[in-house]
Amino acid sequence: MTRVSFQLQVRPELLDEYIARHTPVWPEMLAEIAAAGRRNYSLFLADGGRLVGYYETDDDAAAQAYLAASAVAARWEAEMGRFFVGLDGRPDQAATPLTEVFHLEDQLAAAGSAAGDSADPTNPSTIESDAS
């Protein structure tokens, strides 16, 4: 499974309309996102129009290709393109990806593997301490 995060800049003067367009998203577009293999998809809007998106997928290249070929996604993205600053192309294809630098479950799993069976990193009572 791959975790993908991206950012875009929404035009500040169009923020209210952008939010309204996502309340709700077209049902056929929701179906296309799911059919592409994206799940746990969220968008977060910060002050000034900075938009951060997140989704999970088993094959991001295949998900991108599916949506790039989708007539429904093409219609949605054609309508949404005007909301973004400095964007060349469709928003779903041209968003700036973010680099993941921390993921709790990955680090807990790695810590558990490094410690072997003697410590459960999610249970503080099994972790050795230098405080004694």
Automatic annotation (TrEMBL):
<feature type="region of interest" description="Disordered">
    <location>
        <begin position="112"/>
        <end position="132"/>
    </location>
</feature>
<dbReference type="Pfam" id="PF05336">
    <property type="entry name" value="rhaM"/>
</dbReference>
<feature type="compositionally biased region" description="Polar residues">
    <location>
        <begin position="121"/>
        <end position="132"/>
    </location>
</feature>
<protein>
    <submittedName>
        <fullName>L-rhamnose mutarotase</fullName>
    </submittedName>
</protein>
<dbReference type="InterPro" id="IPR008000">
    <property type="entry name" value="Rham/fucose_mutarotase"/>
</dbReference>
<dbReference type="InterPro" id="IPR011008">
    <property type="entry name" value="Dimeric_a/b-barrel"/>
</dbReference>
